[in-house]
Amino acid sequence: MITKFFAKVVVRFNPFGTEAKTARLLLSAIPPAQRIQGAQIQNEVLTSDSVKVPTVKITFKDKTEMEVDPRTTSFQEISNIFDRHSRKLSLKESIENS
What we know:
The protein contains 3 helices and 4 strands; from the N terminus they run E-H-H-E-E-E-H. With about 100 residues, it is an alpha+beta fold. The chain has a single domain, classed as 3-Layer(aba) Sandwich (Glutaredoxin), CATH 3.40.30.10. A 4-stranded mixed sheet has the order 2-1-3-4, covered by helices on one side. A hairpin with a 4-residue loop joins strand 3 and strand 4. It is elongated.
């Protein structure tokens, strides 16, 4: 997963819910160096009686926000969704630097 263009990552999940695997894989895919480069990473562990909805929300450096429901989406699908936008930003960056 291309995480270079992430500015903010917000993950909410119930550790015993169906979304836990997807949320944990997403958080583990973000390298520690990403935090040093200025990306904000927030995670919130929900209880089973919580009224908040599990969610994965990514804000990219170009201020684009994408939100995905980890209960209905696999990690591979989430990765593909976010990589698609990251590739657009990478192409834009390479054109500007040429």
